[in-house]
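Example is below:
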Amino acid sequence: MMLEKISNCPLCNSTELELHLTATDYTTTLELFNIEKCTSCGFVFTNPRPTSSAIGNYYQSDNYISHTDGGTGLLDKIYLIARKFALNWKYNLLKAKHTTGNLFDVGCGTGEFISHMKSKGWKVTGMEPSAAAREKATLKIQQNVHANLDEITQQFDVITLWHVIEHIHLLNETVLKLKSLLKPTGTIFIAVPNHESPDAKTYRQHWAGYDVPRHLWHFSKTTMEKLMVDNGLKIDTIIPMKLDAYYVSLLSEKYKNKRQNIITRIIKATASGFISNLKAKRAMNYSSLIYIIKK
């Protein structure tokens, strides 16, 4: 396993880091990974982490459904049902800002979102580093899907990153690149887990939103705002992803107690998701958040 240690916080450059918690890679290897916190600005990140050349090994699992486009287990089927609902929800979210235009989906996976948007009349461009997922996306939309950001030069009305930015090694460099690809009147939509959510605090090291080591960065509203402002962007609106509290709680219950029967797990996860959303209202600290960003 090739790991690299981050000595300086990528948001404030501080070297004052402390252990936040230690979490398990429940998807592939069952290895333990430390998650550290910058004591200066509060940014939380996996450290040490796999190098960019080694991280691909941690996606090689049938459990990583966003790259396989399949799944036979109950959790997979729940995910696929929720994803189908989410496609229309995301379409309406974008439509509220732009009726149509050029869309760039970063980390498009197997292409469900861009395929849906293309069917609605949008001109779409996809980028996906996973060769297997990229091949499926290419077939789905019947056009080329790019392997990396360096291949992209045109500007877009909308750029989307649905649970993607937390996977990207070069954080500030990527945000600056996306800024250069955004039209002056364009919008970026970034969806990420929120480690300050009530369900994250309930499940702690078992919280599925940490998803180490694939999730390199673990955002709060404060650290996401700092990342954007420091790179010349601004957060226009924050939208909650309320369904995520239920799905993340369901996975977290599985990680916490694998011997728990499925009915008990579903009941506990439903209660946990409901309570999390109820508590999250006051400070907009939902399990996952969508940041709508402008220049």
Observations:
- The longest strand covers residues 182-193.
- The chain has one domain: 63-294.
- The chain has a mean pLDDT of 93.
